[in-house]
Specification:
Helix content: over 70%
Number of helices: 2
Shape: elongated
Distance between the termini: 127 Å
Order of helices and strands: HH
Number of domains: 2
Largest sheet: none
Length: about 100
């Protein structure tokens, strides 16, 4: 007779454990998620970050302008130096004469 009582007791204790355990585990997981979440954003800090972002973008644009000017100047100097070296070559400065 003892064996006949063990199975229903095990079944009902399992049901009670699940009925109480599932909500407890869900609540624990929600608390853990909320602890890891970021705090609400401060409007003053958001405005400050927006100003920093704008400043960095304007610096990047200015840096691009400077680098473009550098490329243009380098190209002009290279084009200016190239005809002189060609004139020297064509003028006979570096011409081999047959021996």
């Amino acid at each position: 007779m003892n064996e006949d009582i063990v199975i229903p007791i095990a079944f009902f204790s399992t049901v009670i454990i699940l009925a109480l355990g599932i909500p407890l585990v869900r609540g624990y997981l929600r608390r853990a998620e909320l602890k890891g979440a970021l705090p609400p954003a401060d409007p003053e800090q958001s405005a400050r970050l927006a100003r920093i972002e704008t400043a960095i973008e304007s610096m990047a644009i200015e840096l691009e302008r400077i680098s473009e000017g550098q490329r243009f100047t380098t190209k002009l100097l290279a084009e200016r130096a190239q005809p002189e070296s060609l004139a020297r070559l064509e003028g006979g400065a570096i011409r081999r004469e047959p021996s």
